[in-house]
Backbone:
């Protein structure tokens, strides 16, 4: 059953699953998208400010999106996103870390220009296995309105 | 030769290269990180608001980071990033599009808490082959100070 704009309630929080990073996945992602040595070279990374290998923030964002889409967005009438107003990398993400996604609707409003669309502003938060927050995303999504019966 | 915080001048703009997306790369990325049908299914995507297959915004961000790191950041004394204050997906990115990165330093200031570090605020912009802007990123980066001689 598709989740439409009308089904979203401001203040609601979803717990949207977990994902565990391996050293291999951190290096593979970084080689492709963010080849800084503290993301790709475990030995040299020990001499960095991070004291060891850390995941690219863009990989952390990819994990956020994967959990969000697989566990919520693909059940909705999603119409895409115009962007994000805040992205914060709050703690390093290291090999073996398990990240858990919490997703909260901040506000919902109908679109004034597109009557078949609604606008949702949300906060997404990833926590590691020690309940330290590693990522905060605040942004906007577009969703289809429920068809009239 | 490493580029240090002291080498950055507010107002400077770099042109940092181009990247062309294929339909295959759009589908492969989206299957892994953002499996919404308008990113993964060329036929079904024709019925979407986008009228055809479009790249995930997170892939556009990955291309932004790849061009930035390979063509600038890896020559600097980069110390990572605390986050971004704005990410805007301004136009759809489609198969065959060639994206070109323009990167502008907005302001630079020394860190008050870490004397060996400086803080740079920047704007990154991706344009397609028709000079339409597809992405704007405004964020912050940390960079090492030049060692005293």
Residues:
């Amino acid at each position: 059953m598709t989740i439409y704009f009308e089904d979203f309630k401001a203040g609601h929080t979803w717990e949207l699953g977990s994902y565990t990073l391996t050293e291999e996945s951190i290096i593979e992602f970084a080689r492709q998208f963010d080849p800084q040595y503290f993301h790709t070279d475990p030995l040299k990374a020990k001499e960095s400010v991070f004291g060891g290998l850390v995941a690219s923030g863009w990989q952390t964002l990819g994990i956020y999106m994967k959990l969000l889409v697989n566990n919520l967005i693909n059940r909705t009438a999603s119409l895409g996103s115009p962007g994000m107003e805040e992205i914060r990398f709050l703690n390093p993400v290291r090999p073996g870390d398990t990240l858990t996604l919490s997703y909260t609707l901040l506000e919902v409003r109908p679109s004034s220009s597109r009557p078949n669309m609604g606008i949702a502003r949300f906060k997404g938060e990833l926590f590691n296995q020690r309940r330290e927050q590693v990522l905060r995303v605040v942004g906007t999504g577009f969703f289809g309105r429920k068809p009239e019966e």
